[in-house]
Automatic annotation (TrEMBL):
InterPro entries: Aldolase_TIM, DeoC/FbaB/LacD_aldolase, DeoC/FbaB_aldolase, FbaB-like. It comes from Herbidospora solisilvae. Transmembrane segments: none annotated. GO terms for molecular function: fructose-bisphosphate aldolase activity. It comes from the Bacteria. This is Fructose-bisphosphate aldolase.
Length: 257
């Protein structure tokens, strides 16, 4: 856990064990009425019912679903907005957010957003507001760039820029992903990405990330597009916080309606 003074807010995201299950629900800013998020307030209620530690959401969803969210952690997503120094920090404070999130694209020949991340971290630090960076090597579509080395690099440069924790793509074996975690300086959480072939694959990735030393997971589509997002969250909680095996956690997914 962070040793500097935003750590009270960090405790709203990370449980006492230092780990977090976070539902990424910010897709609406680019996709509009996105799958699983059509009824925004109900979607938030489902993940809260499942025991999620925090959600990642835009200001619009956070405001609309404030009552459903209750005291659950809130990471305010700044992406897809026009980034400028300190953009959004004051709003995050006013809305009681526990952290801010910015996506960056290390290695992108045109826009890396690393400068914005440094400025945001400096401004957020003035307010005691933690920042979660999401470094995607080159860009979401540049799959060939999403190598272990590039992911480890992206995580490290994000920490060097001042991020308090980092959301990084899971790749390789737990031993390999450990390079990302141990090289990063700050806690790393595994990013979900596109829907896995089955829910068990999503659970397995969470299990492997934890084995690699990750501090938790940030899953979007694999939670909100699940048949029962509440049960998917409950299963992930059992793995991330309870140390359960995939088989044991999967029992949550089989409970009759
Ligand atoms: O993380 C996201 C946006 O920040 C979206 O999450 P997924 O990639 O897990 O759907």
């Amino acid at each position: 856990m962070s040793t500097h003074w935003p750590r009270r807010r960090m405790h709203h995201v990370f449980a006492p064990d230092g780990r977090a299950v976070i539902a990424a629900m910010d897709a609406g800013i680019t996709k509009g009425v996105a799958p699983g998020l059509e009824r925004g307030r109900a979607a938030v209620k489902r993940v809260v019912d499942g025991g999620v530690d925090a959600i990642l959401a835009t200001i619009g969803l956070a405001r609309a679903a404030a009552d459903e969210l209750g005291g659950t952690g809130l990471i305010l997503a700044l992406d897809s907005e026009i980034p400028s120094a300190g953009y959004g920090v004051e709003q995050a404070v006013r809305w009681g957010a526990d952290a801010l999130e910015l996506k960056v694209f290390p290695g992108n020949p045109e826009v890396t957003k690393m400068g914005e991340l440094r400025e945001l971290c400096a401004e957020a630090d003035r307010w005691g507001m933690p920042v979660m960076a999401e470094p995607i090597p080159v860009g979401f579509k540049a799959l060939e760039a999403h190598t272990l080395a590039n992911i480890a690099h992206g995580a490290r440069v994000s920490a060097e820029a001042g991020a308090d924790f980092v959301k990084a793509q899971y790749t390789g074996t737990p031993e390999e992903y450990r390079e990302v975690v141990e090289g990063c300086l700050v806690p790393v959480l595994a990013l979900g990405g596109p829907m896995k072939p089955t829910p068990l694959h999503a659970l397995q990735m969470a299990h492997d990330a934890i084995e690699a030393g990750a501090s938790g997971i940030v899953y979007g589509r694999n939670i909100v597009e699940a048949e029962r997002p509440d049960r998917m969250v409950a299963a992930l909680v059992e793995i991330v916080h309870g140390g359960a095996s995939v088989d044991v956690a999967a029992k949550h997914l089989n409970v009759p309606l």
